[in-house]
Inverse folding.
């Protein structure tokens, strides 16, 4: 008998009919003899409806009250799912985050979970009940309602699985699992049976949208195995787990890409100590996340510095950098929002040499110019012109033989 | 400086535009220098929408989960109202019932309030905040969410006013106050400036729909003055307060009616001890409320017994009584769903004689046959055929000179 935490997202619970389907799915898990805790999101569209009402009232709604508002979405779902389970003859009980003391910090709309009181849930499970918990929400130590940010239900599910020491956390989604790359770009993309937490983190943060980054960090920290699988089929999906020997045998696990960045270069800035601080201080103060940073070798006391920011922050970042550039005596500032980052990911890189040069070779053969390069122990990321994104992904997917079958070159 | 609790119902908060209006209303009270606590219902239509979803999933939804579901309605309103108050530059904070520990028993969907933790609210008020509390909901001692039943927001408001020792509880509604009778029946019905709790209780339970009965009981018990007033005007409404000398000077305060009852007579039942128990036991077990009961003088060891039940329970009650009648050896059972109860109400009756006979006289002059009579210290109720309801109300209203002006008889 296992303890299974199941998480169903907004699309899976998007109507009363779909909620009944989820209930049947939950019951089939329970009937295998397992203890089941279910974490659900708001019905799809519901959160947007609530946000729209807030927008009709105020341009920038109070953050505390915004969380009070949107957390009703998940409360509706837990009640409806518990009603469905009861109606199907199951003993079930729903809990809001406050009721099972999912305690977070007080950072409204992006709160972080600090602790969960597992006692109540364990008691219900031991009495044979299915426990339904609202995802996405929490309460701070003073009892104020908080939310974890978009995709936060994944984090709720993993945190609950960790607190309960569950055997597995099933994340139900609209895809069959985690793929070697985006199947819409690369038709022979292959579903992975297993992937290491660190690989998943790179896949997630680099643009694969299956799991929320923070939930994977949580799973890694508490060693919770995640099973990413489809709501619409019974197939086994992808297990996201701790790294093991067998994973190291494969050099590359997947190819990720991110079209949502822009590149800024500050040209011929005097290479004196403290430049970086003067340049990135104001950007950080404006809450803009800088991703890659590259600094060229200094020539006659001057250097070029290039970095990437989210595309949505490009204009704001440009004006901050132009101002800093003047103060620092730079020659100029250049920006390009039409770039993409394409990355090769694999924990096996630690023991396999030559991955980066294979990437450069492959791009060179296709005439794809590399604008920036950044590497870590388990990834190689290249910034290229956006127009090359799909080509670059397919070339790398092929180079590292990730596909499950040969695809003729003409289909590219 | 006063402490004012204001309650706004579903119609008053039925859209984001209306919520903004309520916010302005709240602020104008605050700007008089008063401390303000606001209790709100779900936006009109919202609760029905939630109930409909539950109905799509189960015919008789789990009571516990039903409460989890419908209590989201009020949570949406408190958040939106607090957002509006913030946007208008006020310091405001919203609380669900759980957050201010509105503790109830565990009778889902008709829970009774046991206690409220006023400390948190007092602290916010002392720091200059407007406090917005969700009506209708509570939580039992184990933290399970409960609701108080339809109209429960009135009770929430009065209970909060009692706990805070507020100076007044303003109940905002879509009428100008409590009238001597239904203005849609009697065009010279007059708005009352004041009415005693006991009178209001009779008015409420006898069919005037302004205030929920339980909220008035609560107000009476804790001596909370209620001000029933209009959301749509600045006029003074009706104060519902403790009885005083001046009220006793007036014999009759108002005329109420109730078309929602039906009459059942059990004919020539042997008049032996225990009949009533055998007759009303099964009715009570079926959760049917019996209102008036009249037993005729016994003749040759037999008696007739007549009573009223809610019209919705008429059929069920008839079949129970027919069964009991057979067992008791009664001659037969007769039922009539086409009746109304018309009542004259006033605490002044305690010191004014002859009210009942004035009622009988007035009915007799108009040829209205009285089917049943029931009296208490402060009311005289008569059951008449439904078709006479409006006529009976107008006749009594006129007899006791309750109108604010003469109305020519032809307009009846």
């Amino acid at each position: 008998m296992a303890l299974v935490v199941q998480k169903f997202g907004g699309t899976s619970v998007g109507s009363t009919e779909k909620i009944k389907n989820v209930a049947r799915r939950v019951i089939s898990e329970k009937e295998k003899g397992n203890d089941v805790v279910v974490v659900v999101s708001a019905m799809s569209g519901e959160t947007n409806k609530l946000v729209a009402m807030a927008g009709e009232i105020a341009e920038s709604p109070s953050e505390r009250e915004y969380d009070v508002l949107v957390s009703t979405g998940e409360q509706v779902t837990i009640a409806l799912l518990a009603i469905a389970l009861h109606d199907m003859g199951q003993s079930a009980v729903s809990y809001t985050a406050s009721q099972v003391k999912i305690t977070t910090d007080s950072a409204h709309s992006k709160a972080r979970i600090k602790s969960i009181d597992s006692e109540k849930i364990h008691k219900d499970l031991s009495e044979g009940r299915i426990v339904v918990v609202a995802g996405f929400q929490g309460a701070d130590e003073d009892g104020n309602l908080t939310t974890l940010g978009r995709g936060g239900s994944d984090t709720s599910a993993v945190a609950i699985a960790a607190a309960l020491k569950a055997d597995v956390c099933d994340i139900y989604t609209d895809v069959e699992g985690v793929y070697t790359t985006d199947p819409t770009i690369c038709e022979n993309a292959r579903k992975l049976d297993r992937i290491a937490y660190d690989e998943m983190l790179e896949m997630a943060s680099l643009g694969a949208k299956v799991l929320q980054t923070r939930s994977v960090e949580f799973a890694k920290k508490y060693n919770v195995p995640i099973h990413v699988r489809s709501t619409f089929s019974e197939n086994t999906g992808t297990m996201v787990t701790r790294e093991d020997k067998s994973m190291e045998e494969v050099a590359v696990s997947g190819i990720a890409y991110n079209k949502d960045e822009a590149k800024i270069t500050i040209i011929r800035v005097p290479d004196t100590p403290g430049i970086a601080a003067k340049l990135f201080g104001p950007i950080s103060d404006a809450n803009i996340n800088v991703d890659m940073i590259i600094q060229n070798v200094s020539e006659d006391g001057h250097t070029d510095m290039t970095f990437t920011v989210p595309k949505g922050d490009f204009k704001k970042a440009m004006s901050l950098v132009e101002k800093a550039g003047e103060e620092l005596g730079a020659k100029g500032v250049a920006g390009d929002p039409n770039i993409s980052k394409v990355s090769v990911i694999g924990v096996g890189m630690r023991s396999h040499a030559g991955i980066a040069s294979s990437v450069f070779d492959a791009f060179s053969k296709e005439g794809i110019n590399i604008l920036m390069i950044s590497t870590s122990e388990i990834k190689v990321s290249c910034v290229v012109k956006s127009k090359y994104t799909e080509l670059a992904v397919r070339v790398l997917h092929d180079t590292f033989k990730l596909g499950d079958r040969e695809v003729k070159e003409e289909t590219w």
In short: Residues 14 and 45 of chain A are 8 Å apart (CA to CA). Chain A is about 35% helix and 25% strand.
